[in-house]
Input
Amino acid sequence: MTGTLFPLTFASEEVRLLTGIVIGFLFGFVLERGGFGNARKLAAQFYLNDMTVFKVMFTAILVAMVGLFSLSALGLADLSLMWINPTFIPAQAVGGFLLGVGFIMSGLCPGTAVVSMVSGRIDAWVTFLGIVLGIALFTLTVDWLPGLGALYAAGSGEVSLLHEVFGVPAMAMVVGIVAVATLAFVGAEKVEAFFQGRRPPVELTPPARPRLKLAVGGSLAVVALAVLAVSGPRPEMPPVRMASVAPLSLAQAIIEREPGILVLDLRSDPEGEKGIPGAAPAAGEEGALEILGVTPPRTVVVVYDESGILTEVPLGWPRSLEYRFLEGGMEGWREDVLTPVALWGNTLEEREWVRKQNQIAAFFSGAAVQASPVAAPPPAMSAGGGAPQRRAGGC
Amino acid sequence: MKAKPYWNPYLAGVALGLVLLSAYLVAGSGLGATALPKRSLALVGDQVAPEWTAQNTMLKGYVAGGANPMRNWLVFEVVGVVLGGFLGALSAGRLATKVEKGPSISVRGRLAYALAGGVIMGFAAALAKGCTSGQALSGGAVLATGSWIFMLMVFGGGYAVAYFVRRQWT
Output
């Protein structure tokens, strides 16, 4: 476990599912009371005489954003354990545009359609029927229309966050968005006032309370700035390049049983072909983490894969260890260490070098080599359960 | 009973934000709406044509490994929305069987727009892997890049077409 309080862990999945009903209940209740069960009120957003959609939605985004990133900066919440929408820019751009078109035609979006349905609105029932038909239409055509399948799958599919894109600390991004949104609220009120001269707001809209937006925006900005001051900007750690080690030097070190060296086999199929004697087979990056977690500090970890392409320390690997990559990976080892050199050379020095080289080759191609410089660490003990994974989610 | 006025939008926004925050903190997930219809389709598909469903790009993830597609936090969350929306409307005196529309369009015309708009939205929410709640609101709060693009495009699409369907509302 990572030790953060949030997201909460539950004794059983059933208990977690029940929290969905409670939180969904509050979601539906607040949407209804905010006016989101009324298609005319929602549609008025696009005729500029009632900007409730913008105000409610952005205030909610600001509150949740400041809360989440503050708790994360204070070490209370772990965002990496939460489900965050992966990035598929083409599908999200086209889908977003189409959803906006459907929104103004029906006056509702999927979530508000549910609220409007249970408020008794017939247009919402028809809209929801349309939504089901639309999802079915996509489901039936996505594997049949080649362009549609390609559009659906295009993009990285990775989690990308705005502050990473802009290269600023998360809390700075949060403070910036709070400031811009608060200014946008002021602008929205002005636009609204102008267009209400032509079209009155939808009935039941409460009288404006001009100072409220500044109070909300201001207090969020204060919270975010306070957290920023307490936690300090934490720039992303740049990738660390590993130094390299030549196959022959590693071979020498293994023969001489130099202490404090761990050889880590990162090939995808370490069982398939015999690797470097004494190397610990790491089944993927998670397996490597388990081994590294029980390796004493300041051990020199020599990693190798098939051809030596891994040259940067992967994120999350303990920084207390020293990392080297084997030049040329397993291929380099085969060529330099395992292949005997044909006897040649004129000078004494050259002959001596060749002789040594072939001794090394004989040592490693020879039958029994059991000694390893650092005993392969015991199988890592995991404290119950596998590694935490991002939870599946979706809309 | 006379209907109560709606909440002030900024207070409603703070309340909605706290609900969204609690969803992330409690369940590790944002809010959503289209999970219920999507996963219901997967359930039906799994009964009617299990092999086809297991290979369909849209549905295969919901039934992978023999999973029950309805055993999902977002499905339970939408059930909660049904209950909460109903009690919200009931307690505010807003329960009414009627069609919301502007004065200059017929009921039939309004329902035709509602159906067409719904089909487009369902298609769009399936394509974009989320709707206004799941992408714009939830993804927006965690600063997901694609969700912000989605949100800007929703407003773009709405404003681009609003003029042509104004007969419905004004």
About this structure: Residues 97 and 168 of chain B are 19 Å apart (CA to CA).
